[in-house]
Amino acid sequence: MKKLKSYYMHLRQPQSIERKWIFPLAIGSIVSLFLLFLTTLTSSDGTPLLPFYRSFTAYSSVFVESKLKPVPVSNLPPPPRFAYLVSGSNGDGKMLKRTLEALYHPRNSYVVHLDLESPPQERLDLQNYVNDHPTFKKFGNVRMITKANLVTYRGPTMVANTLHAAAILLKEGGDWDWFINLSASDYPLVTQDDLLHTFSYLPRDLNFIDHTSNIGWKEYQRAKPIIVDPGLYMTKKEDVFWVTQRRSVPTAFKLFTG
Ligand SMILES: *[C@@H]1O[C@H](CO)[C@@H](O)[C@H](O)[C@H]1NC(C)=O
To answer: Which residues does a 6 A CB cutoff place in the pocket of ligand 1?
Structure first.
């Protein structure tokens, strides 16, 4: 009998040992799970709450997670604003809408212009589109030059139209950093978000126009010829033309090229 009992006790012993360990093991697992959970918590600026984890991430760059630490938003330079002129002519209405939508961003300002060669119906259609577009209406940053001008490619009417649009954009608050003039046939290769982000690192007075008063060969080739722009006095489009006479270089102001 005794033998049987000791045999029985011998059999039970491992079981009682197991049972003895279950409780501390459970407590231990819960505590370590809790600690693990704490290490995943981060404070609002993106740094981990637990100090040991903080020093761990600071000294080890082997782990991708430490490199992926989000940059605090306040450290980014503020994004700039662009002012766009998108212009087109007869038949460009649809293309102009497409370009405008691809370029659109609530931060920017836009002026669109369909020149006098486009039929009144096409211009009216664009005007209604700009006025009724829910997003344009909400941010009020798209306007159309409704009194259309006749624009001759390479002519002074083109420069005048560009300056007119810039003047409108300046009058509308002028809270923009760069002016970009595009044709309806242009299409952006990057999104406005990417462009605004990239330009946020550039000094705001950076000029992309090569601008100099040292006009060199252009004095004879560009300043002295007399060019006539039919867009100034005609209602139909015609190319600019050169007359045989030349003029002297103006002295009342200095000529710049860009
Ligand atoms: C932008 O404006 C300038 C000056 O009028 C003009 O020479 C140039 O061709 C324009 N660019 C586009 C894309 O319309």
So the answer is: 158-159, 162, 181-183
Ligand 1 atom at shortest distance from the alpha carbon of 153? 9
pTM: predicted TM-score of the whole model, two decimal places: 0.70
Question: Does 99 fall in a domain?
Answer: yes
Spatial contact of 255 and 213, defined as CB atoms under 8 Å apart: yes
Q: Residue 200 falls within a domain, yes or no?
A: no
Number of domains in the chain: 1
Residue closest by Cα to atom 1 of ligand 1: 181
Domain hosting 107: range is 82-187
Atom from ligand 1 closest to the CA of residue 87: 14
* Nearest residue to 129 via CA among 106, 146, 117, 153: 146
Within 13 A of 32's CA, how many CA atoms are on the CB side? 6
Q: How far is the CA of 166 from the centre of ligand 1 (A)?
A: 12
Residue 181: helix, strand or coil by DSSP?
A: strand
Whether the CB-CB separation of 99 and 182 falls below 8 Å is answered with yes
SS3 call for 237: coil
pLDDT digits (tens, 9 = 90+) for 66-83: 667 666 666 788 999 999
Mutate-to-test residue for ligand 1 from 112, 162, 187, highest number of ligand atoms within 8 A of CB: 162
Ligand 1, atom 3, lies closest to the CA of 159
Q: Does residue 120 lie in a domain region?
A: yes
Convert the pLDDT of each residue in 10-51 to its tens digit: 555 555 556 666 777 777 777 776 666 655 665 555 555 554
**What is the Å distance from ligand 1's center to 258 Cα?**
11
DSSP secondary-structure letter at 140? T
Tell whether 201 is covered by a domain: no
Structure tokens, 81:
């604003």
